[in-house]
Amino acid sequence: MKAVKINKEKVNTINSEQLKRLQDFGTFIDKARMSLGELSIQYEFQKADILNHISDQQQKITELEKEIKEEYGDIQVNIETGEIVKREEE
Description:
By secondary structure, the chain is mostly helical. The protein has one helix spanning 16-72; strands at 75-77, 84-86.
């Protein structure tokens, strides 16, 4: 093991350039964490909003399917063409 010689002068602080760099790194990390948290919150709100829209659309689809069934009976519809196909009896 190699012995390390330590300067006998007592040092109580790091130099000002090192301190500034250290503070800048800390500031950057704090801002990055804050931004990440804000993005996470925005993501969750957008996700909840989209899920609500999906739920609304599913409810509207169910209502439309009921309306179509009442008007045309138990049928299948080609969603691309609108063509009606009677369901075969099982």
